Hints:
By secondary structure, the chain is of the alpha+beta class.
Amino acid sequence: MIGVAADKRQKPEARSRSIIYFVERTGYSRTALARAKRNRASRTQLLNRFAVVVTIFLAGTNLAAADQGQGIASLQLTSGDSAAAEALGKQIAALSPSVRPDEARRLAESAYAIARQLRREYGVIWPPLLNNWLVNSGIRKRGLCFQWAEDLLVSLDTLKLTSLELHWGEAHAGSWQESNCVVVTAKGQPFNSGIILDCWRRSGHLYWRSVVTDKVFWVENRAYAHFVRDKSGAADNHSIAVQTRTNAK
């Protein structure tokens, strides 16, 4: 404390000499100060640009977000989705000879149509992690991977499938990398024999692949599937009509 008090009583000339000595020893000159100011300005400019980008994205999805919660009477497939749904339907039908081709086709068409509708309702932007930030910040209401999977599962359940089963798939559960999806299998067949239906990975554009060939290691969570279905049965407000028709564009 004595040393501090003595320092506070330094004469102005002594303090000036100390400052000059500090500058000479550290090289902390006016040039360095100017460089620091430019760096701060650059960071501020970068943050401002990011804010502008987010604002543009949000403005571009305002119409989609405005439709949220209104419900739909039917779902349409674009010509591109129609072709992709046909390919998915064939893969689902090939899961087992016991799979009904008409159910495989309806499930595939419905999955594409539901993903497209949820994409509009959520007001999704790309990339998925940026959309996650919007949801976690309260700017968007839904759009996390488990929410995509929940809404897809509940909606596909309305098809009342008899030759196919829907499962809850998850990876890296409980970590920041957690992922969720719906897996379709032939009735009575194991989880690993199925096909994943993932809406989150491509920002609402349905991604599908066999469980065993996907780069993500998926495991089944039957308890959570029951939880989602029980929650939906109690609320009964997430169902989406699954009537589909091709809308050539």
